[in-house]
Amino acid sequence: MKLVRVIVFVVVVSLAISSCAGRFNVSAREAGETVRPWAVVRGDCAGLAYSGEGSGKAEIMWYSNTKIPIIAGPVAGDGVIFVPVPNRRVIAFDAESGKRLGRLWIEVLPNNGLALGDGLLALSGRSDFNRLRVYDYRSGDFLWENTSDRAFAAPIFCGDALYYTTAKGAVFSIDARTGERNWRTEISGAVIEYEPAFRDSLLYIADSNKRLVAMTADSGAVRWTVNLASPPCGQPVVIPDHVIVPTSSGKIYAVLLDGSIRLTIDSPGEMGAGIACSGPTVFGVTTQGVVFAGDLGQGGIYWQTNLNTPVIAPPVLWGKQVAVVTAEGELKLLYYSDGAVESDIDLGSPVSAPPIIYNNKLYIATEKGELIAITRNYKKAEEEDGSN
């Protein structure tokens, strides 16, 4: 009888532990739906931090409270917003209604943020939880994990590969489905604190020891290295002919794909956050809250607007508006061509995590644990131009 009781106890405990892992009520989107996901920290593998269309006055669509501070940015896909929280869980919300769709216990502290692939959720741990873990977010099943070494950045999905870095300069390419390593390269003396960027078979790494490194994505071979005047302050951004890297001194480098520096832009002050980019224009913010647009064609600054308050989170480009969230928790929408503030909202809570754009809505996670969905009174282009 004792043996039977022991077996029953073990089974009950095992089931309880399994149920704590949780599940998301998430399924694949129906055929024909083409909403662009916000799959990694800055939106996509190129790091453009740009999505949506139009402009207009911001309005709060819904609030949802996780009841625990949020310090890493959410991601979005399949009509769902995924939010990492410090109690080693990821919480899922319906993007349109804000309804909670479940939570997943992930066994690591997801301070670095999340990444989404095709039905896959990846994250890297921090502190004592130095592990890279991948889940099937539609079933909630854990798929595989790799040990890591002081990761400071989230991984990125690019096609079938998952690219992942450590603070000590190691760069990995891993099969996203199986966890099998494709290659590992160590950049000597590198300290990697930001996600890599990918485009057209090359991977770009911002090294905090004042370097930009380009690697071949299929083998990990270092193609070239560019020395910078100061440490980078965000993920590199890749446009068709250039890779753009912001630095803490405020100097922004536009580097050709052969590794030569074509020009630099001097921002209106020191920078502590990444940039957004569209066409020949780069958008950034200084540590003192000056939002600016820089000219990637000739260099120089198109416009600058002083918000007179510190900004920690990097901006995103939401159609024809630059969305900036101040450290005190105020959302500002600036018109992209002249920097005029078109709309603002007091969110009521400090914000340090970067906002995201999904299905032409803006989603902001606050340090009070709220996920806030922002919509707009949409203006068509002809209305903005004043035409009939």
Write the layout of secondary structure elements.
Elements: H1 2-21, E1 50-51, E2 55-65, E3 75-77, E4 80-85, E5 89-94, E6 100-105, E7 114-116, E8 120-124, E9 131-136, E10 141-147, E11 156-158, E12 161-165, E13 170-175, E14 181-186, E15 197-199, E16 202-207, E17 211-216, E18 222-227, E19 237-239, E20 242-246, E21 251-256, E22 261-266, E23 276-278, E24 281-285, E25 290-295, E26 301-306, E27 316-318, E28 321-325, E29 330-335, E30 341-346, E31 356-358, E32 361-365, E33 370-379, H2 381-385
Parallel strand pairs: 1-27
Antiparallel strand pairs: 2-33, 3-4, 4-5, 5-6, 7-8, 8-9, 9-10, 11-12, 12-13, 13-14, 15-16, 16-17, 17-18, 19-20, 20-21, 21-22, 23-24, 24-25, 25-26, 27-28, 28-29, 29-30, 31-32, 32-33
Structural account:
- The chain is mostly beta strands.
- Helices cover 6% and strands 45% of the residues.
- It has one domain: Methylamine Dehydrogenase, Chain H.
- The protein contains two helices and 33 strands.
- It is globular, with a radius of gyration of 21 Å.
Give the CATH level 1 class.
Mainly Beta
β-strand percent reads 35-45%
Q: Which second-level CATH architecture applies?
A: 7 Propeller
Number of structural domains:
1
Secondary structure tally, helices: 2
Largest sheet: 5 strands, mixed
CATH 4th-level superfamily: YVTN repeat-like/Quinoprotein amine dehydrogenase
Number of strands: 33
